[in-house]
């Protein structure tokens, strides 16, 4: 906003304040439209899309404040104010569920978010082109397996017959039933998440790395920089905008961990560490017609996500890289 | 150059418009055909146009949706004058969610088979048609065949005491404790009669290599994740249990949740012992369905709980490695101080209901339903049409297995008795296995009884998802059994369950039960 | 190029680590492949491990001869090709103005769009909106409601913003207007990111399932992922005793494995092909900084 005020294109000769301000603005926008009408034309289809398929359905979120009756529709359902939110906050295990969600989200942020960056850099160190491409292609395969399948694989790998316990047996240790031990749950979530999605996640960073001008590296080599220094001083700084944007895109959905993964790894023995908001929503949804409650929970998650994004976007803007 | 890009944009926009417009036409077309069929349904004139009844049913099994010229559809139309139009859920969808969608778009069928609690949504939001007067008139066979007791339970599912759905009736137990009789013979033991003997048997299963492969790989008894499909261990102590979900039955003089009873505590104590001694598969709570089935199929499990009518698949694989496999039903061993029984739910579960929006066509829908319940049609209902659904071999009718490409023949009868089950066994098992399966049912029937909570509407749980989903129960039960938590924490569970809404639900359940008496 | 000892050690570690990790990632698919070529009995008994047991091609014959499966295959190919093209076009057209400093509404529009990424519409209102637009039961219902992925659009925008603005001036001197700038300067420079986002869209469209369940009732228009699930018969189906046909055939383990392979291979093959676009580009940091 401050920028607008300082815009030099505005005629500063006019005296009266309030009407002028609006007039000024108007002029500015009209001028901008006239000058860059093509940009406005370009964005028009996208805007129409967002209005029809995002904003209009989003209005339906009002059912969070209703006792939504599916047969009667939004118009004829009774309003209940904040009752659905009270219901959520009064839920016996609300704190446990929220804590588990936030902790797992944090672990994912610390371990799972940087993993593709590290792997993209590792891929980048492979000189043999054919090996590089093959390994990349193989890494990208698990993304196509559903969590039902990956969950099944994890359970079998960690069973008494599984690889890990076979290894323990060779070393003379007792087998551990990892999936029912609380202390392993979050580790398993993070590891399986990395395994499944890391290859997919690297794609974007690899694209960014290949866009880096090779002459920068050539110059660095002349300066005597080894690969490590090149990575630290050229690749990473140039990847930073991509990393930052992906971070911002992720942080808004901080509390949405991915229902499928947790649901397929969770057992009753690990509820106390692994029961998250989304699994609670699933249970709450078992009773039919609970759309109001589940929408209210969704709004709760979104508001927190929005607050986080707001904060981090402000920080990011200081580097000139914010989302807006 | 400028123009070419503008053109491109315009092209895209117009494509969109056309796409939308086309679909408008399409839906219009649909509407037209709908209104046409509505007119004919209204019987304005006596015309040759058939009356169409849209039937919604999920979980159909293999096959395609029959067209109106399908022989089975035609045959039913000849008999009833009604053409059924089968509608089902798209593959991979959650059926309950799908019904919610068609409720939201006000596009309900003429008759539907509710699932996942949808019946309560329809009833409570005024979307279900009361059938009290229509049933005796237009579906007399349905009305008479279903026992009075079942109708009584159906009436308790709504506030106004009316009949809003036709219940499913299952007069015999579907589930049974199963035992490897050949293992029992191998170790030279008799059927266990008490829980002590049962435990001794499991010990022998563990130690004496009953499967004869020279490796101690036996899992004397096993269950599935969430404590599902191990009901036999709970049943011995008189716990009402349905595939691992505690049910409602009479405890301490009134209807109560079996999950919080002394019986439950005693059974958990017993199961905990079995677990500690390696008699209960230590991976029970980690066994996904396919893993559990593979353990049974590979001859590792001696005692389990499942649907005897499904044993065929297991038998085929079991015979690969142990040709002499013999499975027997196990009478519940007696636990000291408890009366064991197998939980049976026979009636009251919703099977068919008619939405209010289909009121005009309700008579036809009921006539169609009545056709299936008419004993005179039972041959046809069972076997369908020759060379389509069955073939005659040596003078006996044999069903032709369905494939992905064969049209589905609609079934609407869900009324299982001893006779229909025998017929089903005869149709699906090899001759030499039939007696074995029938014997299992006989044993199970002896031990089973209907629980007091049979047919209790799920609306009693409203507002308490963690109790409805048995989350609290499962968390405590599994943690205690694996030895992670002390048995004493069961009392803590009971307290937390009550606080979490258990008291309120119990009150509702008891009010409901008072109505049924 | 000479390598120091440290670098050599790193290379050895890097190769072995990545190769081992890559092996774990292809193993599940090899396992599924082995299951799909095994007998149902062996598969259900979990006897198959990476190599087929009782080798048979029955399952594959069953799948490849299935006409409706092929029809669904082509539905999916159609929505993937057409949908990726349309999605790319819309995303690029939206991303470009949002990357321009001289577009005055850049910030408010960007903000409004990011909001939709965090606040998701509830399912029923979304369903009813798409229905009102008139997209029910058409292939467009599988393409249009998800036309722009905000995530993908923002990535493209970020990339555009990284393109040095010196190029703009050069283009302006050449007499390019803004469309020309986008299509003649920016897009050719953005091949790596366009290939990446194109892949993201294509994979998403190939795996179309949830929107299909919502919007497509006509089996002729079922995409592959939905058709595949129609082969998975669940145990719950035993609930009704009707005609007893087929209720007992649960040997779908091999079928499941084969269908997963069948549905995955075509899209997996796309990636190596796209990799060639990842070596061109050379934009970031070229003139800037």
TrEMBL record, chain B:
Matching SUPFAM superfamilies: Periplasmic binding protein-like II
Superkingdom of source: Bacteria
Signal peptide: 1-21
InterPro entries: Bact_solute-bd_prot1
UniProt region (Disordered), positions on chain: 26-49
Gene3D superfamilies assigned to the protein according to its UniProt record, in alphabetical order: Periplasmic binding protein-like II
Protein name in the entry: Extracellular solute-binding protein
Organism whose genome encodes this protein: Aquibacillus rhizosphaerae
Automatic annotation (TrEMBL), chain C:
Entries under InterPro entries matching the protein: MetI-like (IPR000515), MetI-like_sf (IPR035906)
Signal peptide: none
Membrane topology, as annotated: Multi-pass membrane protein
One Pfam family named in its UniProt record: BPD_transp_1
Keywords from the UniProt entry: Cell membrane, Membrane, Transmembrane, Transmembrane helix, Transport
Domain ABC transmembrane type-1: 73-271
Family stated for the protein in its record: Belongs to the binding-protein-dependent transport system permease family.
Protein name in the entry: Carbohydrate ABC transporter permease
Species assigned in the record: Aquibacillus rhizosphaerae
